[in-house]
Amino acid sequence: MTRRDLVKTLGTAPAILRARSRSKPNLLLLMSDQHRADWCGFAGNRFIHTPNLDRLAARGTVFDRAYSSTPSCTPARSALLTGKSPWGHGMLGYGRVAERYDVQLPELVRAAGYSTFGIGKMHWSPQRSLRGFEGTLLDESGRVESAEFRSDYRAWFASEAPGLDPDATGIGWNDYRSGVYKLPERLHPTRWTGDCAVRFIEEYQRPEPFFLKVSFARPHSPYDPPQRFWERYAAAEMPARKIGAWAEKYRPRSSDRADIWHGDVGEEEVRHSRIGYAGSISFMDEQAGRVIESLEKRHLLDETLILYLSDHGDMTGDHHMWRKSYPYEASAHIPMLLCGPGVRTTRSQTPVEVRDVLPTLVRAAGAAIPSGVDGQSLFQAGREWIDLEHDVCYSPSNHWNALTDGKTKYIYHAENGAEQLFDLARDAQETNDLAGDASREADLRLWRARLIEHLAPRGAAWVRQGRLVPRPQGQLYSPNYPGGALATKLGSSVF
To answer: b/e per residue, 117-137, with b = 16+ CB within 10 A?
Structure first.
């Protein structure tokens, strides 16, 4: 899309935004894909370079116990869209985002008087659905659900670099491998997303406040940062992978391909993978910084509420696992921060989740939070613990329910009823499974009882005679999923 096309899409109303010109703040939702919580400078990680996110964190609230309840791409985005729990929006694992929900974030904010626009990865079905956005500019990576679909990024790439391959680096969408981006940096999708967001802010001239969602497709694999970001980490000391004794069963490779979900590839291969992952994070952070700078140049930063989060994390070799969809911290624990008008500078220890984004932004827009929303506004969140779950993914053995308050985590493996218990306060990397520790039996019983109470309303397939029931067959959608029995599971080649 050209500059002229973008201006046409955004509108050309004569009024120019002025600082303090409205009572409602602009809303900027910055989102990344597959960014684990502990790979942020503001999380205390001195290895990773995220100065722009750190700057936002320093002037707002950091949520140290933020999670993605169903930590894979589409169910997390369904939670973001609806403000509902997995059972509430209906996606218990990786499937298709429903074509329509009774509550959708962009619609609610638009109805509150905002101009709405989305840039980057949406991962919706149909892929061109707007959900209340007035327009979108899409980067959908390799996902093509219909013959006529072509993402805006791919169309732009073809016009800017005819004859070149946007996937020239040769790394798959779920590979553990990494490498330097082989094309000019300006063609990288992370740069394209940043460019589009900056242009939106530079050209915005409508009188109403805006809601802008900027959704980067990285650091999700392929881990392919530009050369300068690769060099930043290539000679650095990389954080070592963490491996618990309980994870020995994941040491064998799940296949001989590069898109394994578990397998010991050796210390050097893990290090190589993490160089690309770290570089992808820092490149994304740089582009987020350009977006923030564009707000400053227009004197809009102080009247813009900014929320940053990721849809889930990335195991990056911890416990011999790769990718996401697991209950473990590297997969389910996400970065989340909020800054802007009315936000205190503090660190919150309240468990929060992706579902909390909708009520937060809807309330900031001056609208009422609809009934049926399970999330809580981050301005008032006060829950004791958060629920986590994922239906069968990769293998029947990866199928679980869990609860955590950020200090303790209880995991129930639905295939066979096995349990795990971790003391996150003392063992944040989950290397020591306490489920068999007699001294922690009371804790195990407490958290098991909480999960029983949480799942009991779902019926006898989940809890029977006061006991958790193994469910080796799985259940991808709850009865609340729009479309019900007509829902079909998508392949997992690109997510």
So the answer is: bbbbbbbbbebeebbbbbbbb
Q: Which residues face 116 on adjacent strands?
A: 211
- What is residue 30's three-state secondary structure? strand
Q: Which pTM does this prediction carry?
A: 0.94
β-bridge mates for residue 423, sequence order: 408
Which tokens sit at 57?
């964190």
DSSP one-letter code for 354: G
What span, in angstroms and rounded, lies between the C-alpha atoms of 324 and 495? 10
Local structure of residue 321 (DSSP, 8 states)? B
Could you tell me the CA-to-CA distances from 368 to 27, 128, 275, 454 in Å, in that order? 16, 28, 44, 27
Structure tokens at 155: 């169309």
Upstream peptide bond of 470 is cis (omega within 30 degrees of 0): no
Across 304-332, average pLDDT: 98
Return the structure tokens found at 348: 């919150």
Distance in angstroms (rounded) separating the CA atoms of residues 54 and 33 = 18
- Per-residue model confidence as pLDDT tens digits over 230-280: 999 999 988 999 999 999 999 999 999 999 999 999 999 999 999 999 999
CA angle 331, 333, 334 (to 5 degrees): 105
Longest dimension (CA), the chain: 71
Residues comprising the chain, all counted: 495
Looking from the CA of 117 toward its CB, the CA atoms found within 13 Å total 23
- Write the pLDDT tens digit of every residue in 143-191: 888 888 899 999 999 999 999 999 999 999 999 999 999 999 999 999 9
Cα separation of 64 and 350, whole Å?
8
Question: For residue 461, what are the β-bridge partners?
Answer: none
In whole angstroms, give the CA distance from residue 78 to residue 408. 26
For 181, residues 6+ apart whose C-beta sits below 8 A from its C-beta are 169, 188, 224, 225, 226, 227
**Strand intervals (E) in 121-209:** 135-138
Q: Let me know the angle formed at the C-alpha of 279 by 251 and 140, rounded to the nearest 5 degrees.
A: 85
Give yes or no for a contact between 400 and 417, defined as CB atoms under 8 angstroms apart: no
pLDDT digits (tens, 9 = 90+) for 83-125: 999 999 999 999 999 999 999 999 999 999 999 999 999 999 8
